[in-house]
Structures are given as C-alpha cells and as structure tokens.
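Note to self: user wants both folds in one dump. Writing first protein now.
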Amino acid sequence: MPELIPLHADQAPAVLAFELANRAYFAAAVTDRGDDYFDRFADGYDALLAEQEAGVCAFYVLVAEDGEVLGRFNLYDLEDGTARLGYRVAERVAGRGVATATVRELCRTASVTHGLRTLRAAASHDNAASQKVLAKAEFVPVGPAAPADLGGRPGTWYQRILRPRANG
C-alpha cells in the first residue's frame, strides 16, 4: 500500500526518476518543467528542502512499498492558516483514485500537522482529471485562475475549508 511521507534528502534519486519517467505525461496537462529543471535538479531539490525546513512549504511524496515515487503532493506558501496545494501522480497509477485518496489524506495532514484551515488549488480548463480530483476531494470552484497561475493556461481556483484540528 502506498504511503504519503514528508520529502527528505534521501529521496532525491527516486523523485528525479519519477519526474523523468513521467515528463511527457505531465507536459500534456501542465507546463513542462524544462531541461534546466532536470539539469539543476539537485540544486532545486535542496532549495525545496530548505523551504520545508523554514516552514514556508510542506512537500510530500507518495511512495510504493518498493520505494518508487508514485506522486508528489505539495503545500505551498503556508501562511495565516492557508496554503496552495499542488500534486502530480505517475501515469501508471492515474485514473485509479490514487490522486483523490492522497489529496484527501493531505487535507487531513494539512489540518492536523500544519494547523491549516483553508487549501486552494488551481486547475487549468484543459485538465479534466485534476478538476475531478479536486471535486471528489471536496474542493469547490471559487474563481478564475489567470494563465500566470498555471504556466500560461487559463483555469479555475478551487478551495476547501478544512475541519479544525483536534485539541491535544
């Protein structure tokens, strides 16, 4: 059973392998990261870890039992009880409910672990799969997302109000 775990330094090779194996698949729905991303992967990965350490962002990976990364699920700009959600899953597990189940789990984690009350996510108009994931995970459309928010593609912002974390 896949497990959602915080990003850590030892996962860099598995994350890079995930990104490379799924590059063309991702580029069909979201803007391609570009060759520079892969050429400078180690520097970018270290920057993510530093942002996570500073509490600005929280990065997670969905990992199979064999250590293969099946997805990335990220909380960006944690501030005043809110954050932006971003995610991507491997092509080989797409369409099986993996993204929806993991987004739901991350919503619980966002509330309990990070004390967040609201999550926002943007999906482009041509990314029907992401729109379905967000709807099934109880996100509601709240307004247009500018192309600048989505790598040049127009879309919609979605929002979910999280249940308050339990005391103690």
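First done. Writing the second protein, which came from a different request thread.
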Amino acid sequence: MSAKTLVHYGLHFVFPAVLALVFFPVMWQAAYLVMLATMLIDLDHLLATPVIDPLRCSVGFHPLHSFYAIPVYVLMLLLPATQVVAVGVLFHLFTDTVDCLWSFRYCQECYVNSRIRGLADWVQKLLGRKEFE
C-alpha cells in the first residue's frame, strides 16, 4: 500500500473521528458516523465514464464535488441541524483535494486535465512557488 493511499484513507476514515471529538464532543460518536456517511457523495462517481479513473481529480469534476456544490456545503455550516454533514462533506472534499495535489506531483497530464488547475495555480502563487510542472 502506498503512502498516498494510506494518507487518503486515513483522512477519510480516521481523521473524521478527530473532527467529531473536537467540534462535537458531546455527540462525537454520532457525529463520526454522520461524517462517514457523507462519503456517500462519492455516488456521483457512478455518473462518470469510466466510473473509476485514477488519473481524474474528482474535485470540480463530479456534480457533488463541483464548484457549485461547495458554497452550498459552506452555507450548511451556518445551520446547526446541518453542521455535522457540512463538516463531513467539506473535509471529504479537502481529502480529495489533497489526493489530487499529490497526483499532480507525479502526473502532468492529471494536472493539465483537472478542473482545479486554477485553484492549484493560485495556491502555488500564494505560497510563492512555481506552478505545478
């Protein structure tokens, strides 16, 4: 198992427990289960052809991972009834973004074809680094 895979699945399955303990300590077990359930947003991968493409960055590509959906998830943070779901989904998208950025380091084609290229370039400029090459 690669370091990338360990980090990816660790962030998807282990780190939400930390988030639940920190942000929802009174109900951390329920919050953790809800955050795990937010991985159901990956069902939107079933709409793509091929369904699984290790070279494709899901952020900005799939409907529930889109740049239109993300502001909705951010607004969900404002409503107490949807905060746990919002934290879970936003952290899921963060995890997928980390995975994309990791892939970009080794796959120029992945970077060039990704929909988060503009965001990645902006972050690189913000950090004073060259764009991904």
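Dump finished. Worth passing along: The mean pLDDT is 90.
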